[in-house]
């Protein structure tokens, strides 16, 4: 089993790996809108946070030998179901014709005050 703890300046901040590779499957831990170069938390409109979180997942997948087109499952956590349509629009543009299985989970609040957290499962 391979564990990825850093991708560029993206690093895990706790007792977890950014991703774990087991066999031909990549499990990406939850990602927020954190700038991969400066490590700055990028709070902003839900559309911007969603795109940055998805780009972080993409960078981690590439480090593991996978791509966003190989994602089979996504979980998206948002603090308010009213944000769903805005998140879905960014998600659709990001993935294009690829449609992985997905769950959008409304929560009360997310760590640090982010508006979205995403995790992924992909194949290599």
Beta fraction? 25-35%
Helix content: 10-25%
- Number of DSSP strand runs: 8
Number of helices: 2
N to C succession of SSEs: EEEEEHEHEE
Order of the strands making up the biggest sheet: 1-4-5-8-6-7
Write down the oligomeric state: single chain
**Using only CA atoms, what is the Rg?**
13 Å
Instruction: Briefly note the CATH topology name.
Output: 60s Ribosomal Protein L30, Chain: A
CA-CA gap between termini? 13 Å
C-alpha geometry: globular
Which CATH architecture is right?
2-Layer Sandwich
CATH class: Alpha Beta
Mean model confidence by pLDDT: 96
**What can be said about the biggest beta sheet?**
6 strands, mixed
Question: How many domain modules?
Answer: 1
What is the assigned CATH homologous superfamily? RutC-like
Notes on the protein architecture:
There is one protein chain. The chain is globular, with a radius of gyration of 13 Å. It has helices spanning 46-63, 84-95, and strands at residues 2-4, 6-7, 10-11, 19-22, 25-31, 71-78, 101-106, 117-123. The chain has one domain (2-123): RutC-like (60s Ribosomal Protein L30, Chain: A). It has two helices and eight strands. The longest helix has 18 residues, at 46-63. The strands form two sheets. The protein has a six-stranded mixed beta sheet, covered by helices on one side. A two-stranded antiparallel ribbon has the order 2-3. 24% of the residues lie in helices and 31% in strands. Belongs to the RutC family. It holds the Pfam family Ribonuc_L-PSP.
């Amino acid at each position: 089993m391979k564990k990825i703890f850093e991708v560029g300046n993206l690093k895990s901040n706790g007792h977890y790996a950014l991703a774990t590779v087991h066999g031909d499957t990549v499990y990406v831990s939850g990602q927020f809108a954190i700038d991969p170069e400066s490590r700055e938390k990028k709070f902003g409109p839900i559309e911007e946070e969603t795109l940055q979180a998805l780009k972080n997942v993409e960078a981690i997948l590439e480090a593991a030998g996978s791509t966003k087109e190989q994602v089979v499952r996504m979980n998206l956590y948002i603090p308010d179901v009213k944000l769903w349509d805005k998140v879905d629009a960014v998600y659709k543009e990001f993935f294009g014709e690829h449609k992985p299985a997905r769950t959008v989970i409304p929560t009360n609040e997310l760590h640090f005050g982010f508006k979205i957290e995403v995790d992924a499962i992909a194949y290599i």
